[in-house]
User: Fold this.
Amino acid sequence: MTASPKIYVAGHRGMVGSAVVRQLMALGHPAERILTRTHAELDLTNQAAVHEFFASEKPDQVYLAAAKVGGIHANNTYPAEFIYQNLMMQANVIDAAFRHGVQKLLFLGSSCIYPKLAPQPMREDALLTGTLEATNEPYAIAKIAGIKLCESYNRQYGQSHGVDYRSVMPTNLYGPGDNYHPENSHVIPALIRRFHEAKVSQAPSITIWGTGTPRREFLYVDDMAAASLHVMNLPRGTYEQHTQPMLSHINVGYGQDVTILELAQAVANIVGFTGTIHTDPTKSDGTPRKLMDSSRLNALRWKAKVGLEDGLKAAYQDFLAHSST
Ligand SMILES: NC(=O)c1ccc[n+]([C@@H]2O[C@H](COP(=O)([O-])OP(=O)(O)OC[C@H]3O[C@@H](n4cnc5c(N)ncnc54)[C@H](OP(=O)(O)O)[C@@H]3O)[C@@H](O)[C@H]2O)c1
Assistant:
């Protein structure tokens, strides 16, 4: 019997990395064959340390879910850190993986790689066809470089060394392990916190930013982890049939979007907030619609399973478990 592969999950304490570990364990992957290091134990921007780690641990597969991640405010305030740290982490992990014989690696990108005005829903071939959203351009450029690193190693070393590095681009994610910070969180955790606090303080109403009409797509993080394992484990021929050497990334979306007002109403129902929801049309709305085209992944026989209502219920339970409010 062949031993289970030794799998390194980079960023295992993050929202996605922890979901990947949960998914591997749920599928019966032995815990001792899952390799993890905290940021404090291994700084992935440190090239020498990363090479040393791969030399001594010799993983067979890598899920690259470590990244410097943040909202608009953080991206605007620390653009140098966002581009430098993400470029360094990816370059170090991907090159060390290659130099130490790793044939299978999955890189996690983001939907912000697509141009600001990309046709909706956004297809993989919208990449590099237009100008990026200015606020997170440095982060997006790093993510695009991550895709191109994987493709370049495949093109140069795919035949000679069996290198097979793949990329997935998730839509907005939510679920256990999310960041509920009052000022620096994404829309779902921010709404969960606000509605929960309004319920506790018996506030009569809540006002949400903008008209409530922009449409956004949300994917439960355990679905993201399932999609990651699915793409990683596709036979090489199948993956190559559905991708191109220089257009190889795969979108991972839920497949449907909701308006921000519909989302707010869903969160209110789950949290049990019974007051009124107002919109504030004087505040800017941002892009009217952001939806991934996930037909490439659907053709590879994967579809999201967790609906918004079930996902929000689980996310709220996670919030309650970690909140002292
Ligand atoms: N969350 C979303 O909605 C979303 C959407 C699309 C794509 N993604 C992508 O999914 C991936 C994972 O995102 P996430 O939401 O799971 O992020 P996260 O919760 O912030 O986790 C990122 C992880 O990376 C680690 N890390 C950061 N810098 C490091 C370094 N220099 N050395 C070692 N470890 C480091 C962090 O550790 P510390 O916390 O200790 O620094 C953390 O465990 C990212 O590539 C992100 O772009 C996320």
The chain has a mean pLDDT of 96. The first strand starts at residue 7 and ends at 10. Residues 11, 13-17, 39, 43-45, 65-69, 85, 89, 108, 110, 170, 172-173, 186 surround NAP (CB under 6 Å). The first helix runs from residue 15 to 26.
